[in-house]
Design brief:
The protein is of the alpha+beta class and 400 residues long. The chain has 15 helices and eleven strands. The strands form four sheets. It has a four-stranded mixed β-sheet. The protein has a three-stranded antiparallel β-sheet with strand order 3-11-8. It is globular and about 55 Å long. The structure holds protoporphyrin IX containing FE.
C-alpha cells in the first residue's frame, strides 16, 4: 500500500471530482460509517443522495433561517446571557443539535435539558467513530462505546421518530420536511434501506450537520476576536454589515476545513494526475488545509485571515472546505448561505446558520474570557476546540 498526498488546489479539485475514487476516510469507523451517504459509492450513492436532496432546497433553508432559527438562537442563548458567560462549544452544540435534528427528522418529545444532554452524549460517541482513523486512544474500546450509543439512539430516538413518520405516511397526513421522512417515503428507490442502515444514516446526519457547524462557528469567532483586536478601526464593521460578517465566516471556513484532509481509495487501477499509477490498495490523501492556502488561487497572503479576498479561477471563498464532486456537502447552503452576487439586499440575503450565530454572539458583546482561556481537544489528532469560554455584556449594556 502506498499513501500519496496532493496539496495544490488544482490537484485536490481534480481528485475530488473523479468517479473512480471511493471515500477512504471512514474505513476505520465502519461500525457507524460503513453504509452512510458519505461512504457510499456510484449508483448506490446517487440513489440515496437524490432522495435526501429533496429536503436540502434553498427555499427551505431560507424560510428556516428567516422564521425559525432566530427563535432557536434566542431561546438557547437566553440562560447564558443571564449568567454573563458561556462556552462557545457547549452553546454551539445545543443550538446546532436542534437545527440538525429538525432537518434530519429526529424527534425530541420531551424538549428537556436532560434529553438534549443524552443526545449530545450520543453525538460525542458517534463523532469518535467518524474520527477513528485519526484516534490516538484504544480503537476497540471506542468501537464498543459507539455500538452501545447506537443501541440507545435506536431505542430512545430513531425508532419512535420512524414509527411516527411511518404512521403519518400511511394515514396520508401532512408530512414533516426532513431526511427520515423522505427516506421512508422513497424507501423502495433505495438499494439498501434496512432499519439498521437508516438508523445509522440518521446518526451520521446529526453528526455531519451539528459538529462541523459548531467547530466552524468557534473557529470563526476565534478568527474574528484576533482580527478585531488587530484592526480596531474596522472592528465595528462586522456587526454593521452582515454581508461582510458572512465573508469573515467564509474566510475562516477556508482556513479551517472541518477535516484537514479528504481521503480517497481507487476502485481499480488508474493513472492519476500528479500521482501516477495507483490501485485499490493505495490511499490518496487530499490535503484540504494546504489546497485552501494555495497562493495561486488565494494570493500571496493565502495563509492569513483576510475577509473579502479575491480568488483566482472558479474558486469559492471557502475553498474546498465543503468538498467538491459527488460527495460535496449537501448542507453547505444551510451552514454558509448563498454567495453574495452583485447588489445584495441585506434584509433578503441568505446568510447561513454560522453567520447568524456569530452575529447573535457578537451583538451581546461576546469576547474571550481572560480568566479561562480556550482549550483544544487532545483526544484526536485533528485539532478542534474542546472549550472556548466567552463573556457577554451585562444585559443593561445591550442595545434595544
Ligand atoms: C460548516 C459546516 C459544514 C462543513 C465544513 C461541512 C463539510 C463537509 C465536507 C468537506 C463534506 C465532503 C466530505 C468528503 O468529500 O469526503 C461534507 C459532506 C456532507 N455534509 Fe457537510 N459540512 C457542513 C455542514 C453540514 C450540514 C449543516 C449538513 C446537514 C444538515 C451536512 C451534511 C453533509 C452530508 C450528508 C454530507 C455527505 C454528502 C455525500 O456524501 O453525498 N453538512 N460536508
Amino acid at each position: 500500500m502506498a499513501v500519496h498526498s496532493v496539496k495544490t488546489y488544482a490537484e485536490a479539485e481534480e481528485l475530488l471530482r473523479r468517479d473512480d475514487l471511493r471515500q477512504g476516510l471512514y474505513d476505520e469507523g465502519a461500525v457507524l460509517m460503513e453504509k452512510v451517504l458519505v461512504n457510499l459509492h456510484g449508483a448506490e450513492h446517487r440513489a440515496r443522495r437524490m432522495v435526501e436532496a429533496k429536503v436540502f432546497r434553498r427555499d427551505v433553508f431560507f424560510a428556516y433561517e428567516q422564521k425559525i432559527f432566530p427563535h432557536t438562537i434566542a431561546e438557547t442563548l437566553a440562560p447564558f446571557l443571564v449568567d454573563g458567560c458561556c462556552d462557545l462549544v457547549d452553546f454551539g452544540n445545543r443550538v446546532m443539535l436542534n437545527l440538525t435534528a429538525d432537518f434530519s427528522g429526529i424527534d425530541r418529545p420531551e424538549r428537556s435539558a436532560a434529553e438534549t444532554a443524552t443526545l449530545l452524549g450520543l453525538l460525542r460517541s458517534f463523532g469518535k467513530a467518524a474520527t477513528l482513523g485519526q484516534a490516538t486512544g484504544d480503537r476497540e474500546a471506542i468501537r464498543a462505546e459507539v455500538r452501545d450509543s447506537l443501541k440507545l439512539f435506536d431505542d430512545a430516538f430513531f425508532t419512535p421518530s420512524m414509527q411516527r413518520r411511518q404512521a403519518l405516511i400511511e394515514a396520508g397526513d401532512e408530512l414533516p420536511r426532513d431526511v427520515l421522512t423522505v427516506l421512508l417515503q422513497f424507501r423502495s428507490e433505495l438499494p439498501d434501506s434496512t432499519h439498521d442502515t437508516l438508523m445509522k444514516e440518521l446518526a451520521f446526519y446529526l453528526l455531519a450537520g451539528a459538529f462541523t457547524s459548531v467547530h466552524s462557528m468557534t473557529d470563526a469567532m476565534h478568527e474574528l476576536f484576533v482580527w478585531q483586536t488587530a484592526n480596531p478601526d474596522q472592528a465595528a464593521r462586522v456587526l454593521a454589515d452582515p454581508v461582510f460578517a458572512q465573508s469573515c465566516v467564509m474566510e475562516s471556513t477556508r482556513l479551517h476545513p472541518s477535516s484537514a484532509v479528504a481521503c480517497r481509495r481507487p476502485t481499480g487501477t488508474a493513472e492519476m494526475p500528479a500521482v501516477g499509477l495507483v490501485g485499490p490498495e493505495d490511499v490518496l490523501m487530499i490535503d484540504l488545509l494546504a489546497a485552501n492556502q494555495d497562493v495561486s488561487r488565494f494570493g500571496a497572503d493565502a495563509a492569513a485571515f483576510r475577509p473579502g479576498r479575491e480568488t483566482v479561477g472558479n474558486v469559492g471563498p471557502y475553498g474546498l472546505s465543503f468538498g467538491m464532486g459527488a460527495h460535496a456537502c449537501i448542507g453547505r447552503n444551510l451552514a454558509a448561505g448563498a454567495l453574495p452576487r452583485g447588489t445584495v439586499d441585506p434584509a433578503a440575503h441568505h446568510y447561513g446558520t454560522i453567520t447568524l450565530l456569530v452575529l447573535a454572539l457578537l451583538r451581546h458583546g461576546a469576547r474571550p474570557d481572560p480568566a479561562d482561556p480556550a482549550r483544544q481537544d487532545a483526544s484526536i489528532t485533528r485539532l478542534k476546540w474542546a472549550r472556548y469560554p466567552v463573556l457577554f455584556n451585562p444585559p443593561q449594556q445591550d442595545g434595544p
